[in-house]
Amino acid sequence: MLCHRIIPCLDCDLAFPEGRVVKGIEFKQIKYAGLPWQLAEKYYEDGADEMVFLDITASHEKRETMARVIEKTSENVFVPLTVGGGIRNIKDARRVFNAGADKISINTAAIRNPTIVSKLARYFGSQACVVAIDAKRRYVTDPREAQNKVVVETAEGLCWFECSIYGGRKFTGSDAIKWALEVEERGAGEILLTSMDKDGTKDGYDIFLTNAINERVSIPVIASGGCGTPQHIHEVFQKTQVSAALAASIFHYETYSIKEVKELLAKKGLAVRSG
Amino acid sequence: MKNYGRRLTRREGRVTIKITILNYKMGNIKSVYNALKHLGAKPVIANTPSEVKARKLIIPGVGAFGEGMNNLKSFIPKISEALASNVPLLGICLGLQMFFEGSEEFPAIEGLGLIKGKVVKIRTKLRLPHIGWNSLEIRKEACPLFKGVDDGYAYFVHSYHALPEENVIAATTSYGCEITASVWKKNVFGTQFHLEKSGALGLQILKNFLEL
């Protein structure tokens, strides 16, 4: 039986020579959680099923630093590693694959030039090509207000979901549900779906957004944004059919361990990898 | 929790000095290399057939069957030569699939034909590709790869799997249907899952291969 995957996300600030894992409470207030490869080893020992390394600065100059982070991590961590943030072309992708990454995650580059998704899937295989979608609710009172958008009913009212790029700093006007279907068609192997409404709130995943996309695509979806407790992870697996849940801050400061989350899920009768 | 994947002692490491990973440009060979290093072995990456000189061979691989076979072509005489002199051969993922006679993925292209049978698309109602950690059921307890390994979880990423026409299935997993997870025929070993990405359990299986 296939397990529910628990994926810690390491947001990396690469201004430091070896990188630092950060968690921004708000934009100005950044806390440092440690060296990426050290944290990664700890998560590996603790039972992480995969890991995502995100270059929060998405800076082109720092690509070599990210490659070093992955090289160092992959020496002692034997679960799949995904790298995202600022990957723009085949050359950027090849650099992180050569360093030891198994998958790359793209958002901004894909929206600006959707053919990059097809290209990456063809060069490296669909399994290595994750498309990250950062979606924000746009409420409407009448579906007719949202021409050409997929309007979904949520507990808070009718809305469609807008894609954002540049780490949530810019909105594109495009519909996240339609975009998800397009990237699947183009050969993406997985969708990393982050709720911009929930991200940073520690209030739980956006179940409506997650279901709206997961029920329409047939590739695996990773739910992200809003996780504050192990119960939130249980909730997203119980109320949606996603194959993985991603969380960052709850693991960084040892608020909860991955092991604790898995114990809770196992107790609730969900399949998780142990041992 | 079982203490899988213990590093080799220095003496064991020396025994396995000559292990070669075939680099036929399909996917991430670095992770297989790192896993072997972590276990204390001294792997060598062969970029050309002339660099294949080993007591053990590994064919890793991610990607499509057709391209894989085309890229592997120049290595085939070396592989046959190694098998004839009883060198253990380990195929991972696409590496395992290429042991068979052919694949539905590229019907026009012949496989290595080391094992009778074909590679077919997974016939399941569940989502494809089959991505993630799935439970192993060991079918051949005698298979040296699974020595000291209990049923546990391994990392899979694939849409096709092998259907052998010989009694070679060493382990299976289930995903709405039975999937061939590992094969074993004399000195030919294969895992459909990525043992280099399957945590401590994967390392233990790799270590068992080193110790053959």
Which secondary-structure class do the elements of chain B indicate?
A: alpha/beta
Largest interface: A-B, 32 and 41 residues
Question: What percentage of amino acids of chain B are in beta strands?
Answer: 25-35%
Widest beta sheet: strand line-up of chain A: 1-4-5-6-7-11-12-13
Number of strands of chain B: 13
The name of the CATH topology of chain A is: TIM Barrel
Q: What top-tier CATH class of chain A fits best?
A: Alpha Beta
Helix content of chain B: 10-25%
Strand order of the largest sheet of chain B: 2-1-3-4-13-12-11-8
Using the alpha-carbon principal axes, give the shape of chain A: globular
Instruction: Please tell me the CATH architecture of chain B by its name.
Output: 3-Layer(aba) Sandwich
Mean pLDDT of chain B: 90
Number of domains of chain A: 1
State the secondary-structure class of chain A: alpha/beta
Please provide the ordered H/E string of secondary-structure elements of chain A: EEEHEHEHEHHEEEEHEHEHEHH
Average per-residue pLDDT of chain A, rounded, comes to: 91
Number of helices of chain B: 6
Descriptive notes:
The complex is a heterodimer of chains A (275) and B (212). With 275 residues, chain A is α/β, with parallel strands linked by helices. Chain A has a single domain, classed as Aldolase class I (TIM Barrel, Alpha-Beta Barrel), CATH 3.20.20. Helices cover 33% and strands 27% of the residues of chain A. Chain A has ten helices and 13 strands. In chain A, strand 11, helix 7 and strand 12 form a beta-alpha-beta unit. In chain A, helix 1 packs parallel to helix 2, helix 2 runs parallel beside helix 3 and helix 8 crosses helix 10. With 212 residues, chain B is an alpha/beta fold. Chain B has a single domain, classed as Class I glutamine amidotransferase (GATase) domain (Rossmann fold, 3-Layer(aba) Sandwich). Chain B is 23% helix and 28% strand. Chain B is globular, with a radius of gyration of 16 Å. Classes of the chains: A alpha/beta (275), B alpha/beta (212).
